[in-house]
């Protein structure tokens, strides 16, 4: 591990901070390679402007080094830049708490699904040492430390997988609407189908295993009890959205996705890339190379990533 930031570090060439999801620092370090110059817990600092990374929870743009002689001076310096700040504290926890007390309060209440993501600018800061703040007034995520907390539904969905889809729609600012057609591959037990049907979409759920009875009973859900990998796109026809939360090796999912892409019948894709054992960086890069798409680690992802291809973004 590289040493902590010191006052002598040169910020003149520009620095970007990358906050890794908890437990996945190694994956982010692999993506950033030799550009990493300093590390503070899960926060990796790299030279130059932000680059596309999948294993990052929040990107800190244009990191500033701010020498301060006291807590009060630190608060004054941050408030002079903007109002809203959120701490990341891998250490110096008491010092961080004292600084937060002197800053304007920022709400971090969990969202009800359907609420829009916050729009107010939210900066991030951490202590490099007792006399030095690292601060970024602009970050990639509108959520504190990139954590999209949502009020859970502990009654309706048949599994907790629904949270990943809620997370994705909240972050993307887009979701299927009433009357749109959705294909949910590997749907069992039906968490994603439950989400989509509740949005008013017409959902075809595909899985060899049976879905939860309460999902099957939903009026706008139809079932195809067969393998998602053996499904012929021609037998389905055009769909607005294709979803997959299938447990399979990434390269197998990539072949499935390419098959549907080649047929040109799907407008939008949201698929979970699940890793069994070591992280497959090569296949992740292949997904990221698909034109118009992006690969992200959602707050509710574990050792997995979410690949997204939206028609409007692809055209734009």
List the helices and strands and how they pair.
Blueprint: E1 15-19, H1 25-32, E2 36-40, E3 43-47, E4 58-61, E5 64-67, H2 71-81, E6 85-87, H3 93-101, E7 123-129, E8 132-136, E9 138-139, H4 162-172, E10 181-185, H5 191-198, E11 202-206, H6 213-216, E12 221-224, E13 239-244, H7 250-263, E14 266-274, H8 281-288, E15 293-296, E16 304-309, H9 311-315
Parallel strand pairs: 6-7, 10-11, 10-13, 11-12, 13-14
Antiparallel strand pairs: 1-3, 1-4, 2-3, 4-9, 5-8, 7-8, 14-16, 15-16
* Mean of pLDDT: 94
Strand content: 25-35%
The share of residues in helices is 10-25%
Flag low-confidence runs: 1-12
Helix-strand sequence: EHEEEEHEHEEEHEHEHEEHEHEEH
State the oligomer. Answer: single chain
Termini gap: 40 Å
Report strand order across the widest sheet: 12-11-10-13-14-16-15
Tally of individual helices: 9
Instruction: Please provide the count of β strands.
Output: 16
Please outline the major beta sheet.
Answer: 7 strands, mixed
Give the structural class: alpha/beta
How would the global form be characterised? elongated
Provide the gyration radius in Å: 22 Å
Fold and architecture overview:
The protein has nine helices and 16 strands. By secondary structure, the protein is of the alpha/beta class. α2 crosses α3 (93-101).
List keywords for this structure.
alpha/beta; 316 residues; elongated; 9 helices; single chain
Brief summary of the model shown:
With 316 residues, the protein is an alpha/beta fold. It contains nine helices and 16 strands.
């Amino acid at each position: 591990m590289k040493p902590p930031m010191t006052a002598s570090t040169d910020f003149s060439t520009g620095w970007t901070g990358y906050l890794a999801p908890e437990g996945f620092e190694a994956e982010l370090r692999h993506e950033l390679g030799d550009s990493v110059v300093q590390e503070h817990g899960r926060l990796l600092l790299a030279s130059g402007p932000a680059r596309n990374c999948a294993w990052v929870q929040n990107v800190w743009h244009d990191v500033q080094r701010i020498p301060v002689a006291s807590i009060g001076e630190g608060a004054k310096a941050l408030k002079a830049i903007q109002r809203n700040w959120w701490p990341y504290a891998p250490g110096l926890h008491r010092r961080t708490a004292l600084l937060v007390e002197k800053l304007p309060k920022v709400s971090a209440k969990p969202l009800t699904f359907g609420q829009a993501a916050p729009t107010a600018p939210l900066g991030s800061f951490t202590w490099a040492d007792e006399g030095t703040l690292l601060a970024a007034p602009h970050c990639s995520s509108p959520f504190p430390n990139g954590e999209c907390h949502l009020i859970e539904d502990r009654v309706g969905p048949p599994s907790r997988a629904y949270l990943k889809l809620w997370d994705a729609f909240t972050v993307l600012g887009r979701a299927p609407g009433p009357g749109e057609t959705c294909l949910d591959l590997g749907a069992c037990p039906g968490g994603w189908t439950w989400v989509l049907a509740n949005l008013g979409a017409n959902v075809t759920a595909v899985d060899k295993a049976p879905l939860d009875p309460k999902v099957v009973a939903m009026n706008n859900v139809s079932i195809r009890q067969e393998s998602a990998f053996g499904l012929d796109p021609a037998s389905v026809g055009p769909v607005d959205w294709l979803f997959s939360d299938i447990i399979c090796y990434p390269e197998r999912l990539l072949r499935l996705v390419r098959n549907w892409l080649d047929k040109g019948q799907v407008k939008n894709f949201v698929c979970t890339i699940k890793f069994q054992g070591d992280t497959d960086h090569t296949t992740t890069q292949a997904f990221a190379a698909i034109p118009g798409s992006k690969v992200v680690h959602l707050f509710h992802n574990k050792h997995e990533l979410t690949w997204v291809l939206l028609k409007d973004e692809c055209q734009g």
